[in-house]
Predict the structure.
Amino acid sequence: MTAGNKVGGRYRPTTRTLLPGCSIASPTSKSRARIGSTNKLRGVRAALHDLDILVTGGEQDWDLATWRRLIAGRTFDVAQPDVLYVGGVERARRVAAMAGAVGVPVMPHSANLSLVTVFTLHLMGAVPNGGGYVEWSIEGPDYYPWQYGVYEPVLVVEDGHVRIPDGPGWGVDIRSDWLDQAEHQTSETGAE
C-alpha cells in the first residue's frame, strides 16, 4: 500500500501533507456525523463538484444502512470506513463491496499506528477496490503515546510504501512488555 495524506475541513479543503502530490479532502467528523439528511447529502454532493480534489467520507459511520445511502447518493469520491468504528473487518469488507459495486474506491480511516492500521492494511490487500493509499498517522508520542510499542514488527513507510504484515494471523505479535504494563479489566455476566 502507498502511504498517503488526509485533509480535513468542513467541505473547504485544507492540507496536512504527508507525501508531496497527494490531495485527499474529507469533511470533519463533526460535519460527517450530521450528513444523514437528504438536504445535507445534496450539499455534500454540490460541494464535491466544485473541488479539484478527491473527497473522502464515512470514517465515523457504523450503520450499514447509512453506508448504503451515502454510497448510493455518491456523497463522496472515496469511501473511508474505519475497521473498528464500523464493527470489524467483515463489516468494513461489506462497505467496500457496496462501494465497489458502483465504482467507488475505498481508503479506510486509520488514524493512529495501533492495530487499526494493521487491520486496515489487511483489508486493503483483500478488496479489489482498495484506493491505493492508506491513511498514515502523523501524530507523535506527545499526542498518541499509547500507539507505540504495542506490537512488532513495527510498520515502516519506505519510499512512500508500507508492507502488509505477512506473518501468521495479522502478521504482528503483541509485545509481552506492553501486555504486562497494560491496565487489565474483567467483565463477567451473572455476577452478584
